[in-house]
Amino acid sequence: MKYIINEKPGDPLAGRTLYITKFVSDGDIEDKNVLDIGCGFGWFPLNCLSRGVKSIVGLEISEDSLSIAKKYLISEKLSLNIGIATDLAFDNDSFDTVTAWDVIEHIPLKTEEAMFKEVYRVLKHNGVFYMSTPHSSLFCTIFDPAWWLMGHRHYSQNELVSIAEDNGFKVELFEIRGDWWDLATIWNLYISKWIFRRKPFFYSYFRKQINKEYAKGNGFTQVFMKAKAMKE
Length: 232
Known about the structure:
By secondary structure, the protein is of the alpha/beta class. Helix content is 36%, strand content 22%. It has a single domain (16-229), classed as 3-Layer(aba) Sandwich (Rossmann fold), CATH 3.40.50. It has a 7-stranded mixed β-sheet with strand order 3-2-1-4-5-7-6, sandwiched between helices.
């Protein structure tokens, strides 16, 4: 059901995903060993491959969740593995960069620190952790259909910075983006995907508007954080 609208890694990016490709520094991808936790259908691994990554591991919780990425992405630099964010099956100091896009809100409640500890463990000295998650602003929360339907969690800047710093990270960058078009796009996706089993309505128009919104600066729907592992 997750991929009923047949997303593909090479589909045009928009809004949050397009912004992420700009938020992540080229210097943290090119010739680096990268772990993408919750890689989904593979859009970020594909972007990393286009940016000269040394190697990238995409991680998902099941074989089914990896099916689209495995179908469309083939590279000797790419490995697609099954695993969970709170118990990473990799050696200490394995990666230069770890990413987790809209993952933390889906792991079991009160395991956020376990996730940060594991990311810290597998990162090299001065390795970086990038992540995104829904913001805990009032409007973002109450207009999120997933919050009503399944208790979709939202996080504040203070919460995330505190968890990061308590687990050996130094937060280097924190941004909040997305506005009303972001929320409208979420509703469009939910209605079109889960009720009509099709791609979003008026896709090109929504894509144009949400790209403008993310480009303009501050918002209230989505948080993006970059943190450095401060190891001895």
